[in-house]
Every structure is written in C-alpha cells, then in structure tokens.
Amino acid sequence: MRVALLRRSAPEPTHVTVIHAGTCYPVAVRRRSAARRITLRVSSATGEIVLTLPERTDLGAAQRFADSHGQWIAARVAKLPERVAFVPGAVVPLRGVPHRILHWSTVSGATTATEAAGGTPVIAVSCGLPHVGRRVRDFLEAEARRDLAAAVTRHAGAIGRAPKRLTIRDTRSRWGSCSAAGQLNFSWRLIMAPPSVLDYLAAHEVAHLAEMNHSDRFWRVVAGLYPDYEEPEAWLKRHGTELHRYG
Question: Which residues form the YgjP-like metallopeptidase domain (predicted)?
Fold first, then answer.
C-alpha cells in the first residue's frame, strides 16, 4: 500500500544575510500584521539589524530590499558605540563614576566597589577568570536593586502608595514601567547612570501608582516627588543608549 506523504514547507528563516564591501551582516526577519511596508532599522541599544515586513510580503522581495540598503547598513553599524565586555581592565560606570574592573583574586569572594592604589575607583572581583563577567553583572544588578528599592520606598511613602512588587531586568525599550496591578519594573543598567537619573525613574514609575497615564495630573505628581525631573530625563535622552553598550 502506498502512503501519501504530506509535503511540509520549510519554516521561514529568522535571519537573512546582507553582504556589503566584503562584510556579512546578519539581519533579523520580523513579520508584523500591522506593518504596511518593508522597513529596516539598526538598534542603537543592541546593534541588531532588523528587517520588518508585512505578513504577505515575499521574502525574496524583502531580501532584495535589504541588499539594496547594504551601504546604509554598513554606515549605521560603523556609527554604533563600541561594546565594552565585563572583563578585567574594562572601565564601566557605576552611579555615573567610571570604575575599572579589577580581577583581585582567583579565590571566590565578594565583589566590591572600592579604590585601588592611587585612589582609582575599581570594581574588585574575586573569582575564577571565566566568571568575572557574570560576577560583575550580578554585582551591578544587586546594587541597582538596593538603590531602586530605597528610592521607591521613599517616593511611594510620600504619596501614600505601595507597589505590589519591584522587579529588576535588562529591559531594552523602556527604563522602567508600572503595570495596572502596581508592579514596578526597572532596568538594572540605571545603576550605571548618575544617581539623579535612577532616583527620577523611581519617582516617575511610583507616580504611575497614582496616575496610570501621562496626563498633566501625572506630571504634577512627578514634580511633587522630583521637582527637577527635566534634567535627568534629558540625560537619559542624550546618554541612555550608551548604557546598553556595557556587558
């Protein structure tokens, strides 16, 4: 007996490749039902190249579109800030102050922010060399959680509201958010910004506990919690993207 086999189409690739001047650029493919045309962007936060296309657009047409923008892709990628890995000797900001990562010892111990000889600010890490990056990130996340918890508690107390939960993540699109259930979420990368920026973000999201919108009433709550909010908000617009280059 012959059994008919159903032919299944291969899944669409998640990436295509654009070659320009001998360099290969991986481009992520995203289909969006709301998209009306093919678009191409290079994320300044992650460096990812994304090709967005409508549901029914032929992938071949999308590939040709991306190929025709090879020079544009190369130019945008060239302008991206250099990424800084969490390795010994790298310099990363902590509360707005540059700190050099110092591999203090191979014996496992606490990671601390301190000063080296001569007063140079350092993040001293004690662990096996392969674990330095993870230890530095864990340290920064813990510092962010501590500072944000203190700031949220202070601002929430000022308006008589209490969040249901505080979560620290590596968010890309927003520095902070407040859910309808009163859960606050922040990026751990705020610990690299000046303290005023983290404090302002805490005040901003706490204000949403009272006003779940961006109305004039909301901004009056923000101003009551953090009167000079324009300055840290402007800092984020100018320098926020730079924080994503670390780690």
Answer: 36-239
Sequence-separated (6 or more) residues with CB below 8 Å from residue 107? 126
8 Å CB contact between 194 and 95? yes
Q: How far apart are CA 109 and CA 121, in angstroms?
A: 19
Q: Say if residues 37 and 54 touch (Cβ distance below 8 Å).
A: yes
Give the CATH number of domain 91-245: 3.30.2010.10
**139 DSSP assignment:** H
Angle between helices 132-159 and 216-225 (to 10 degrees): 110
State which H helix or E strand residue 183 sits in. strand 183-187
What secondary structure letter does DSSP report for 189?
Answer: G
Q: How far apart are CA 91 and CA 204, in angstroms?
A: 29
User: Using CA atoms, how far apart are residues 69 and 119, in angstroms rounded to an integer?
Assistant: 49
pLDDT at residue 146, as a whole number = 98
Distance (Å, whole) CA 62 – CA 81: 28
* Residue range(s) in the chain whose domain bears CATH number 3.30.2010.10: 91-245
Write the pLDDT tens digit of every residue in 30-71: 999 998 999 999 987 778 999 999 999 989 999 999 999 999
Measured distance CA(198)–CA(200) in Å, rounded: 5
